[in-house]
Amino acid sequence: MPTLAKISVVIVAAVHIAISVVEMFFWNNSFVYQRLDFTPEMASIVTPIVQNAGLYNGFIAAGLIWGAFTKDNVLLLRVFFLVCVVIAGIFGALTLKWTTLVLQTLPAFAALTLVWLSHSQFKLQD
C-alpha cells in the first residue's frame, strides 16, 4: 500500500505539472482558453492572472514531489499538499467548471485516502 500511495501522489503531481505548463505557457492558445469559455479578448486580459495561477500549481506539484520522495515528515507533507489540491479543486469546480472535480479533486482525494490508509497508526515516516 505505501508504494501505491506514493504512485498516487506522483500522479497528482504530474497533473499539476501539466496544469502549470498549460497555464503558464499555453494559455493564449485558443484551444486552451475556449475550454473555459473565454473569448480571445477575455483570455488576453486575464493572461497574467492565469500565468500566476500556473506558477502556484507548479509549487503544489513541487510540494507533492517533495512529499512523495522525502524520508522526513512524509505523512504531514503528503496530507498538507493533497488537502490543498482537494480544496482548490472544489473551489475551481464552484467558480470555473465542474470538470475540475473529476480532473483535480477526485485524484487528489483518492491519493489522500491511499496515503492515510498506508500510514497505520498515523506514523510520520515510511
TrEMBL record:
Protein name: DUF1304 domain-containing protein
Transmembrane segments: 7-29, 49-68, 75-95, 101-118
Keyword Metal-binding in record: no
Classification of source organism: Bacteria, Bacillati, Cyanobacteriota, Cyanophyceae, Nostocales
Coiled-coil annotated residue ranges, if any: none
Keyword set includes Membrane: yes
Domain of life, source organism: Bacteria
Keyword terms, alphabetized: Membrane, Plasmid, Transmembrane, Transmembrane helix
Pfam families assigned: DUF1304
